[in-house]
């Protein structure tokens, strides 16, 4: 039994641009509750809460060199990552390092929504990029 608790926070979907990418979610009747640019990741994000603490996050690259732009070039639009909400992120990262899980960044960086985030390499997870996110101050 893990001492950590994981909750699905959001599913990240790469789109060529946020407006067009959001049309389907608006057709569902969902409201876009925030847009945010994460300059360190060269990405703009748009959040659509599903009403159960899970969100759809659309991602648009702001620069051809951004990881999202590169992803789109290679694979086209689609699921880019899933994000698990956690507490005690530093402890969790230490545990993962101890177990030699391949991380993309070992030092948490600033993500959208005042969170600190760490990405786990898809090679370690069965082919899915996983983001671990902790609200700052939690
Ligand atoms: Zn995300």
Structure characterization notes:
By secondary structure, the chain is of the alpha+beta class. The protein has a single domain, classed as 2,3-Dihydroxybiphenyl 1,2-Dioxygenase, domain 1 (Roll), CATH 3.10.180.10. It has three helices and eight strands. It has an eight-stranded mixed β-sheet. A hairpin with a 4-residue loop joins strand 6 and strand 7. The model has no long low-confidence stretch (mean pLDDT 94). Bound molecules: zinc ion. Zinc ion binds next to strand 1 and strand 5.
Give a short overview.
The chain contains 3 helices and 8 strands, in the order βαβββαβαβββ. It has about 140 residues and is an alpha+beta fold. The chain has an 8-stranded mixed β-sheet.
Secondary-structure topology with pairs:
Elements: E1 7-14, H1 18-27, E2 34-38, E3 43-49, E4 55-61, H2 67-75, E5 78-85, H3 89-98, E6 109-110, E7 115-120, E8 130-135
Parallel strand pairs: 1-4, 5-8
Antiparallel strand pairs: 1-5, 2-3, 3-4, 6-7, 7-8
The structure holds zinc ion.
Zinc ion (ZN) binds next to strand 1 and strand 5.
């Amino acid at each position: 039994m893990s001492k950590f608790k994981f909750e699905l926070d959001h599913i990240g979907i790469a789109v060529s641009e946020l407006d067009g990418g959001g049309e389907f979610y608006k057709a569902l009747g969902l409201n876009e509750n925030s847009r945010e640019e994460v300059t360190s990741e060269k990405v703009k994000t748009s959040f659509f809460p599903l009403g159960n603490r899970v969100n759809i996050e659309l991602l648009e690259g702001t620069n051809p060199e951004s990881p999202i732009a590169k992803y789109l070039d290679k694979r086209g639009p689609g699921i880019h990552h899933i994000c698990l909400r956690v507490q005690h992120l530093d402890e969790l990262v230490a545990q993962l390092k101890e177990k030699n899980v391949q991380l993309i960044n070992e030092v948490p960086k600033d993500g959208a929504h005042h969170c600190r985030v760490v990405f786990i390499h898809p090679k370690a997870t069965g082919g899915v990029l996983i983001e671990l996110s902790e609200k700052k101050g939690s």
